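Sorry to interrupt, but I need a hand with the structure work. Leave the record below and I will have a look:
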Amino acid sequence: MRAPKILIVDDDQESRNLLCEVLQANGYAVEAVADGVAAREELRRDEGYVVVIADLRIPRETGLELLRNLRQEKSKQAIMGSISCLRWNRSLRLTFLTRWHRT
């Protein structure tokens, strides 16, 4: 059985790396891009993604615009929006994300 594929969309490299690390450690196949336009291009190229996790504040097409456009295109992926209000240290964010993933 193939691992479920998740696309991460975030312009912050550290956030992309952290999400990829946590999700891969939990058995997901993960790819990451830096903006909404790149996300739509990746989704057109590879239709195997089941979830898209998008920062709401990304360049070239915001997370909300990405969501709106994917819905108009009748995209089959589940979409989650995220936003970073605070810059936590890496270990605290990793603990939070790991606990969030397990609930």
About this structure: The mean pLDDT is 80. Residues 49 and 85 are 27 Å apart (CA to CA).
